[in-house]
Design a protein that fits this description.
Layout: E1 13-17, E2 27-31, H1 38-47, E3 53-55, H2 59-71, H3 74-80, H4 84-89, H5 91-110, H6 123-130, H7 134-146, H8 160-166, H9 177-187, H10 192-205
Parallel strand pairs: 2-3
Antiparallel strand pairs: 1-2
Helix pairs in contact: 2-5, 3-8, 3-10, 5-6, 5-9, 5-10, 6-7, 9-10
Length: 220
């Protein structure tokens, strides 16, 4: 299974997997051409035995939405060594996450994708927060901080890319934030934060610098 928005099954059909079935529909099935078909409905029926599922006519939008979620969190944890709660409660690092997410939204919008909530964050508010709209910044920061809970140690949520980094595996940063930056350049939308996090994660991956919060605060 591949998370990138260009990934698809050989049959021309793809399934996105999102965590947290108690909060939202977990599986989304659809066709790359955007039409609801009997095949997509049948796949939806089958995977619904494992978790909540729906067939969608917005597969590319669903996948770019998921990419936005990962882009604003995974690389930051990989570069800093921070868990999810610690990351979102750190004022300066949280602003980096907002920049990453907002750029990702603007690139996706330019590409013509219909985006849903980025986790719990309204996509347009996230993009406007990245653009320093004070009302949007307050809204997004309240949602991010409110999602961390009181205890920064429990649970210590570490995204998959941070786990890969800790285990010495090659990360997916070039296929995630690097891809967003490249698509942004292709359609004329600057994504400097995504360029930065790609560069910094690769430096940590190569052993040039240790994981630390300062890694993501350059050029911010």
């Amino acid at each position: 299974m591949c998370w990138g928005p260009r990934c698809r099954a050989a049959s021309g059909e793809a399934i996105s997997r999102l965590s947290g079935g108690s909060r939202h529909t977990v599986y989304r099935t659809g066709e790359v051409h955007g039409r609801l078909t009997e095949r997509a409905q049948e796949v939806c029926r089958l995977v619904s035995h494992a978790d909540s599922a729906k067939a969608t006519d917005n597969l590319w939008g669903e996948r770019w939405t998921k990419l936005c979620v990962n882009a604003m969190r995974n690389g930051v944890s990989a570069a800093t060594g921070m868990g999810g709660n610690e990351r979102d409660r750190h004022d300066a690092v949280r602003r980096v996450c907002i920049a990453l997410g907002g750029e990702s939204v603007r690139v996706g919008q330019k590409l013509g994708y219909k985006l849903g909530p980025i986790g719990t964050l309204p996509p347009e508010s996230l993009a406007r927060a990245m653009e320093n709209d004070k009302v949007a910044v307050a809204e997004i920061e309240e949602l991010m901080i409110g999602g961390t809970g009181e205890d920064l140690r429990a649970p210590y949520q570490r995204p998959s890319m941070a786990q890969d980094m800790a285990k010495g595996r090659r990360t997916e940063i070039e296929l995630m934030n690097g891809f967003i930056a490249a698509e942004g350049a292709r359609v004329g939308v600057a994504a400097p934060a995504n360029e930065m996090i790609t560069r910094q994660v690769l430096r940590v991956e190569r052993g040039e610098i240790p994981p630390r919060p300062e890694n993501v605060l350059v050029n911010t």
